[in-house]
Specification:
The chain is mainly alpha-helical and 244 residues long. Among the domains are: 5-104, Zinc/RING finger domain, C3HC4 (zinc finger) (Herpes Virus-1, 2-Layer Sandwich), CATH 3.30.40; 109-148, no CATH class. The protein is 50% helix and 11% strand. The strands form 4 sheets. It has a 3-stranded antiparallel β-sheet. It has a two-stranded antiparallel ribbon with strand order 4-5. It is elongated, with a radius of gyration of 48 Å. It starts with 27 loop residues before the first strand and ends with a helix. It comes from Sagittarius serpentarius. Residues 192-243 form a coiled coil. Residues 18-56 form the RING-type domain.
Length: 244
């Protein structure tokens, strides 16, 4: 939908009106036949139709283009009243700057920022409302440090609140201790498994070394026996040599 033509100051050229809603163009698009529309209006129209609502020429979304520059300039220069005029705002802006003004307008109706409050109030009166809002929060004046809503003042009990807070902290601490305990047990189990695995590997290596040493001792004994046999043969040969 376009901008309500009643908000504008002075004459508005017919070419700057949407061919569908007949209000001043908002976020405009133009068809090849040069008829202009609000983006929302023409998109809604083309859901059920495939032609221009003015001259019935065939059009498609892909054929829509931005408004000619000179028309955009004329559109942006139009002067109109703020939408909060009924609440007392007397500002008149160009169409180009109206959105920026209305985002900051002191007469805009905005919701109270306190959770649970449904009041809509003018931006300029928000601070005053927040000071008396029944949903405003503040720190307990008795020093317990608990944040309370004004509506809960009569129900607030410092001792009960602190006891509840203490129980929550105790429960949280127990949970954290249990988590730390489980984590340590998990780490110890992992280290224990690692040590057992390491011990098994070392034991295998020791057995392999023992086996190698046993083979070496057997080889040494064989060499020593061969040496004795060789010495005996040499001695026998020496005796035979002497006899000859």
């Amino acid at each position: 939908m376009g901008y309500d033509i009643e908000r504008f100051v002075g004459y508005v050229n017919e070419g700057l009106l949407c061919s569908i809603c007949r209000d001043v163009l908002e976020d405009p698009l133009q068809a090849p036949c040069e008829h202009a529309f609000c983006t929302a209006c023409i998109h809604g129209w083309l859901v059920h139709h495939s032609n221009c609502p003015e001259d019935r020429q065939m059009i498609d979304v892909s054929l829509l283009r931005p408004l000619y520059r000179y028309m955009r300039n004329d559109l942006n220069r139009l002067q109109l009243h703020c939408k909060n005029r009924e609440y007392g705002c007397e500002m008149v802006c160009s169409l180009e700057s109206i959105d920026r003004h209305e985002r900051e307008c002191e007469y805009s109706q905005i919701p109270c920022s306190n959770a649970g409050c449904t009041v809509q109030i003018e931006r300029r009166n928000l601070d005053g409302h927040l000071a008396v809002c029944e949903y405003r929060s503040r720190e307990c004046p008795n020093g317990c440090g608990y944040t309370i809503l004004s509506a809960e003042d009569t129900q607030h009990n410092c001792v009960a609140e602190l006891r509840t807070e203490l129980e929550l902290l105790r429960s949280e601490m127990i949970c954290r201790v249990e988590e730390a305990k489980h984590e340590m047990e998990s780490r110890l189990d992992s280290q224990r498994r690692h040590m057992v695995q390491k011990e098994s590997i070392l034991q295998n290596e020791i057995e392999e070394l023992k086996s190698q040493m046993s083979r070496m001792m057997s080889d040494v004994r064989s060499l020593m026996a061969a040496e004795r046999q060789h010495r005996q043969e040499l001695e026998q040969a020496e005796l035979e040599k002497r006899e000859l």
